[in-house]
Design a protein that fits this description.
The chain is of the alpha/beta class and 388 residues long. The protein contains 13 helices and 13 strands. A seven-stranded parallel sheet has the order 3-2-1-4-5-6-7, sandwiched between helices. The longest helix has 22 residues.
Length: 388
């Protein structure tokens, strides 16, 4: 028989990225007697190909309650649909077993969309991080907005995104601007220094360091070869520079991208490829690097708070609110090198603010979860913010 003095919350993590953001919240909720937490791990966490990042969770000594293996090893459209089918079936088994009062999910990937769909069928209310954002050239754009319409409670990262959810017909009283929880105490992290990083990663770092994370633009797959060629050609032109490359997510065309990156590393001694650095090591590398380049959301959300410039390539993150330290650039060798030269020409302006930072994000989220009357969450109504 279920006790009545706690809320049974289920959290799902499918990648190193969402785990890095959710980690401190998971720890906080597990320690709070007002909640019973079921932590579910799926997606690339359980894949050797993507570095078995479940080991990072185990290293943090966070209990994993359920594991759902879904990846087929390939990333064609048919494989993603096959993965989705496995995910829905796995979530159904977990929801039937643990009967959560609330599903808490983050992001915009297909695995998370499947979780939201399954929760709706099981009539489980959903709290979602981070709706209202835009990533114009990726399937994530579709999934994020779809998850928003399936969700009941919304944690957003800026006021602009809150207004966008209201435009989408979401009830304002159910939308909470808490900033990005990945930024909480980010500048209090005990970063590894250059020597420690070299020792742990077993590499030699030249005087200059670039950090590259590149994902496919899943709505523009025909351009993948050109994007890889232009980016790596620019990296190869850099003098006296080491480049650390982190593995892309499991997406359409990821295999092609991974093979190109690995081959590039084999031919260039100053370029180093890693399946997963882990959040602490990744942020430590950001802390000592000269700039971050690629099309990962981390270059827009986390990097500005570590007072580093980032070059955002292409349109995968197009439409996201960004700090003035983020340089938007096309996949063009000449333009990429021009952007890098600008970074070396100008010192970082420490007055630059990060629009995603909000004080006491975790505390605000926990307070909302404590106060929310889950049993009173009924059928969603479309909120008309203006005249139709």
């Amino acid at each position: 028989m279920r006790l009545s003095n706690y809320k049974n919350i289920c959290i799902i993590s499918s990648t190193r990225a969402d785990y890095g953001i959710l980690k401190n919240l998971i720890i906080k909720l597990k320690k709070n007697s007002k909640f019973k937490l079921t932590f579910v791990v799926t997606g690339s966490h359980l894949s050797k190909k993507y570095g078995n990042t479940i080991n990072e969770i185990k290293k943090d000594k966070i209990k994993i309650d359920e594991k759902i293996k879904i990846l087929s090893g390939k990333n064609k459209s048919s494989n993603l649909l096959e993965n989705s089918s496995k995910a829905i079936e796995g979530y159904a088994k977990v929801f039937k077993k643990v009967s959560p009062d609330l599903l808490l999910i983050l992001g915009d990937r297909y695995e998370i969309f499947c979780a939201a769909y399954a929760a709706v069928i099981f009539r489980i209310p959903i709290a979602h991080f981070y709706g209202g954002e835009i990533t114009a050239n990726s399937y994530d754009e579709y999934f994020r907005h779809a998850i928003t319409k399936l969700s009941n409670i919304h944690f957003v990262s800026t006021e602009k995104y809150k207004r966008r959810l209201i435009q989408m017909g979401e009830e304002p009283r159910n939308i909470f601007n808490v900033g990005s929880i990945s930024l909480e105490n980010i500048n209090k992290i005990n970063f590894l220094n250059r020597e420690q990083i070299q020792r742990v990663l077993k590499i030699n770092i030249r005087p200059k360091l670039a950090l590259l994370t590149l994902h496919p633009e899943t709505l523009n797959l025909k351009a993948t070869n050109k994007q890889i060629r232009e980016t790596l050609s620019a990296i190869k032109s850099l003098k006296n520079t080491s480049t650390i490359i982190t593995m892309p997510n499991d997406d359409l065309n990821t295999d092609k991208l991974i093979n190109s990156l690995k081959n590039f590393c084999k031919k260039n001694n100053d370029v180093h490829f890693f399946q997963s650095l882990g959040r602490h090591m990744y942020l430590s590398c950001v802390n000592i690097c000269d700039f971050v380049i690629g099309n990962s959301s981390s270059g827009i959300i986390e990097v500005p708070s570590i007072k580093k410039y980032s070059i955002d390539l292409g349109k995968r993150q197009y439409g996201r609110e960004r700090a003035k330290s983020v340089i938007s650039c096309d996949f063009n060798k000449r333009k990429i090198l021009s952007s890098i030269n600008k970074i070396y020409k100008y010192k970082f302006n420490k007055k630059i603010t990060n629009p995603y930072y909000k004080k006491n994000s975790l505390k605000k989220i926990v307070t909302v979860l404590e106060k929310i009357k889950i049993k009173k969450i009924g059928i969603k109504n479309f909120y008309n913010f203006g005249r139709i």
